[in-house]
Amino acid sequence: MKGTFIKNLIFLRSGSMKIFLILMLTLEFAVTLILLLPDAFMRNSVLKSLIFSVFPLAVTVQMFEYNSRCKWDIYVDSLPLSRSGIVRGTYAFSIVLYAAMLAFGAAVYIIFSALFLHGPNLDNAFTLFCFPLAILMFITGISLPFYYKFGYSIFKVAMLVGVGCAGGIIGGIIVHTLGENAIIGENVGRGNSVLNFIPPEFTLISLAVGAILYLASMLLSGKLYKTVDL
Amino acid sequence: MKNAIEITGLTKKYKSFTLDNISLSLPSGCVMGLIGENGAGKSTIIKLIFNTIKRDSGEIKVLGRDNRDRFEQVKQDVGVVLDEACFPDCVKLRDIDAIMRNIYKSWSKKQFDSYCEKFSLPRDKKFKSFSRGMKMKTSIAVALSHGAKLLVLDEATSGLDPIIRDEILDIFNEFTRDEEHSILVSSHIISDLEKICDYIAFIHKGKLKFCEEKDALLERYWVIHCGEEAFRALPHNRIAGYKKSKYEVEALITDGAMPNGILAERPSIEDIMLFMSRGDK
What we know:
The complex is a heterodimer. The longest helix of chain A has 34 residues. Chain A is built from ten helices and no strands. Helix content of chain A is 82%, strand content 0%. In chain A, helix 6 packs antiparallel against helix 7, helix 6 packs antiparallel against helix 10 and helix 7 packs parallel to helix 10. Chain B has ten helices and 14 strands. Chain B has a six-stranded mixed β-sheet with strand order 6-7-8-3-9-10, with helices on both faces. Chain B has a four-stranded antiparallel β-sheet with strand order 2-1-4-5, covered by helices on one side. A four-stranded antiparallel β-sheet of chain B has the order 12-13-11-14. In chain B, helix 4 runs antiparallel to helix 5. The radius of gyration of chain B is 21 Å and the shape is globular. The mean pLDDT of chain B is 88. At the A-B interface, helix 1 and helix 5 of A face helix 2 and helix 3 of B.
């Protein structure tokens, strides 16, 4: 597991300049937004949550594409690693990456709110970290078993389906919170964050569900690992 | 003598290709060359050895252990070089060292560094800027740096210039000086195999044509050049393959009494393979 984890970490490090540039752009955008529209920054965590959750997801997808392209997937079978170890290394790496990026996002929110606004809302910071983490675990949990069973191309489709399902779930939670007659588009259009519609209890429930699904998916991937010839 | 690899009745069926009932054994301390045309099934055998693909039937034992039974422990003693170097483009040699240190229990950084030095591999360049030869040399350095008892090489010397190939063959020869060390090597460069192999296994269209000691194999056959009439006079069961042209018949025949007036010479492994796969018989 450690070897696979280290390999993925080295892959991530190789793209460190890209990551650094994206983070700098995000910070620059956040500062501009605070200076021009402080209220909008407080309300609208869509941007923050999107950037800090889409980016690690993109890195994960790119990593699998890379593994498949350079035939690491074939080579790894010749190394003294158990299939469950290979799978565990990937799942551990993904969750660490997600958590690190989202913690960074929450920290940016807290620091900027403390510096430029009336102080951070810790509930918002909690939601900003936990809810996207739950969604990322859900999407990855749904799609990774397809990678280990069928390979990269089917995995991509499964991930798109996972993203669609996650969107549906978020929509469902918002409708549930606002009531059936609420017009979501209008609220979001006014600068309200999607995350602002999510009550803390939903955040906790979704985190628990995401974590269970992620663990179950890890066990399933270990069982399904290349049971068909790729 | 123990066997490093023992394959019995190995079968794998695809829609358009079948690896059919392959049985072969590689004794410890020996080098076996897998030869055969493209698509004959050599790489499929190697993939089956590592369980990268699933077999339909048969048994594979590596270093005395079934390859479906906690095989990752056995793989600590196996070094592998596949036909393509499979490291991510972004890694440098020190990254490969860091990855492998966490995979192989007996990984030796000293040995890896010494092979990198020997192969003149650049330490500060990324893998993507390596030539094919450098990539293969990196894979070979990895395979030799964790105290492996068995090396499995799939086209390991292809893409390398003759001088480097010779150097690498010397390293393989040195490796097999230890009686516990064995090599299974598949290659298109049959001259390389002739230099280092003790056994040759010839796979043709998914079937094992023969698997035997190289010296015995070379002593068993003759290549003859003769006219049509002299060829017809030969006992049919001695002809392993032949090629007819307008002027003469060239044939591979088994050892035995040679009819008068027939020009005969000892074949190379390549001759034997070509007659058996492309000959008229």
